[in-house]
Amino acid sequence: MVEPASQSRTSQREIFGWAMFDVANSAYTTVVITIVFSAFFVNHLVPEGSDWGNSYWGIAMILSNLAAMILAPFLGTLCDLTGRKKRFLIGNMLLCALATGLLYFVGPGGIYWAIGLIVISNTTWMLSEVFCASFLTDLATPENMGLLSGIGWGVGYLGGLLSLVLVLFGVITASPERDLALYIHQNQQAMLVVAAFFVVVSIPTMLWLRDRPVREPIDTHWRSVWHHTWLRLTHCWQLSQQLPVLLHFFLVFTLYSAGMAIVIKFFGIYVDSELNLSAGEKTGVFLALQLSAFVGAVSFGLLETRIGSKATIFLTLMWWIMGVLSIYFLAPLAQLFGVEESRLFMVSAVVAGAGLGSTQSASRTIVGLLTPQGFSAMMFGFWGLFGRIAAIIGSASFAVVADLVSVQQALLVILAFFVAGAMLVLLLPISQGIRQAREFSN
């Protein structure tokens, strides 16, 4: 078991080092998964004439999530047994950066190389996110956990904003219509920039974040770890009896996270395929989205300390629902208000984006509150597991509807996930779940 947070000293420098990892890893998900490379993948790497560009990208997302699902419980158990979360955090960061940098060598038609490298980089990025989240119970108290999580996620969007500015203004300056070869080369160079950004900005994490000691040494041979992992997985029924509120939250989280996964993984593709925006307008939308996500994460994090994590998730999901509806009815709303669709879309994206980080941050807080002491890596591993299931469900459903019907109609898939999640999250007895976690620890 890992030493409880209350018995270990946490410095402001360590909290800063932890938060800087959120800054560092945001470059990957912002530039590679959400905005730049995803659209480049569909429009320039997928073989010309193919009608399954969204599905190819969906395959990469599904495979990487399946890999993370398989590895997360095993590595989470290993971390709980050894207390070496930092080593796995840094190791996965380096692997993600390496695979991202290797995308520099993938050109048009290299679809399978691209899928393979995205699977490796996205898998290791997701695993590093789980390990980063598992430090929350070491660094925070139940009273300030929501605020600390919100600040971490908020400054993470500043990292996404900074990396996006570097890429869109410092690297990708060519237009595909004017100089396609240069545009392709610059997109490849952008992957090197993202890889370097991830490593360099993670230096404070490598220097100042520290592991907590384990109470007693346990055999960590891989067979023993698999045995412990299997025991934990087969004890899900016992876990559901002792921590039913946490289990119910994981199921609700899976629903609304499927909607968020679609937004994160297909936003850039949607903007490129459905909206007739200039390069400058696209850049403005992307930057405004990152800025609104930062403001939303910090603002809702402060609000969360007053109204609680459950109410925060419900409010942010309602926020999401309004944003998605405004994008779905973009054309008639633009006519009604007498404004250009591009301007109204930017407003809608800003509204929806404000809920992105705050929903994820409040979810992370609830997992921390409902997790017994000494089981943080395991429970956040399960959190990652359900998040991966959500991403598979969301990616598959959106990609199929988008390719068979239209990307516009596929927005209804996102809406359905958010509505279901908002309705069910209100039924969760969080206070009861906190008591269950304390009783489980005792």
UniProtKB/TrEMBL annotation:
Keywords: Membrane, Transmembrane, Transmembrane helix, Transport. It is a multi-pass membrane protein. The keyword Disulfide bond does not apply. It is found in: Endomembrane system. The chain crosses the membrane at residues 15-42, 54-76, 88-106, 112-136, 148-170, 190-209, 245-271, 283-303, 312-331, 343-359, 380-401, 407-428. InterPro entries: Atg22-like, ATG22/LtaA_families, MFS_dom, MFS_trans_sf. The keyword Repeat does not apply. Residues 245-442 form the Major facilitator superfamily (MFS) profile domain. It holds the Pfam family ATG22. It comes from the Bacteria. Its main location: membrane. This is MFS transporter. It comes from Ferrimonas pelagia.
